[in-house]
């Protein structure tokens, strides 16, 4: 069978075309994810990064709760300027938290294997 493919059938990116002409890269999907030769290394890095993100999410969530509780107490004490500062701090942390969740969503879309990792189940 001469389909013009060069390389093994397990290669994720396979140049195709006829001799003497430019090569076209054809992507092959396996498990609904575009994979290349570095997929295992990239997955390992994603696991390390996601573990760090989960740890930071926990710290960020706790900091948001603390800032909101302090803002509530400040409002009760009629310290409105301090309450606004604390609410601004909580809002900034909340934006960071949303960004971390967005990054995790992107990583689990790219690396579906991460969805079953223990770091996301705890």
Fold and architecture overview:
The chain has a two-stranded antiparallel ribbon. Strands 3-4 form a two-stranded antiparallel sheet. It contains three helices and four strands. It has helices at about 40-75, 80-110, 120, and strands at about 15, 25, 30, 35.
The proportion of strand residues reads 5-15%
Strand order of the largest sheet: 1-2
Q: Major sheet: size, sense and barrel closure?
A: 2 strands, antiparallel
Distance between the termini: 50 Å
Helix-strand topology string: EEEEHHH
Number of helices: 3
What does the overall shape look like? elongated
Radius of gyration: 24 Å
Count of DSSP strands = 4
Could you tell me the mean pLDDT?
Answer: 79
Helical content stands at 55-70%
The low-pLDDT segments are 1-18, 21-30
Structural class comes to mainly alpha
Strand and helix map with partners:
Layout: E1 13-16, E2 24-27, E3 29-30, E4 33-34, H1 39-76, H2 80-110, H3 118-121
Antiparallel strand pairs: 1-2, 3-4
Helix pairs in contact: 1-2
What's this model, at a glance?
This protein is mostly helical and 122 residues long. The protein is built from 3 helices and 4 strands; from the N terminus they run ββββααα.
Record keyword descriptors for this entry.
60% helix, 10% strand, mainly alpha, 122 residues
């Amino acid at each position: 069978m001469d389909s013009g493919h060069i390389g093994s059938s397990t290669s994720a990116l396979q140049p195709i075309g006829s001799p003497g002409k430019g090569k076209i890269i054809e992507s092959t999907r396996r498990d609904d994810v575009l994979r290349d030769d570095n997929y295992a290394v990239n997955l390992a890095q994603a696991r390390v990064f996601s573990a760090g993100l989960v740890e930071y999410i926990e710290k960020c969530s706790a900091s948001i709760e603390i800032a909101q509780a302090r803002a509530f107490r400040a409002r009760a004490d009629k310290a409105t300027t301090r309450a606004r500062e604390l609410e601004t701090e909580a809002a900034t942390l909340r934006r960071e938290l949303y960004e971390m969740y967005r990054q995790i969503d992107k990583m689990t879309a790219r690396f579906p294997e991460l969805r079953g990792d223990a770091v996301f189940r705890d």
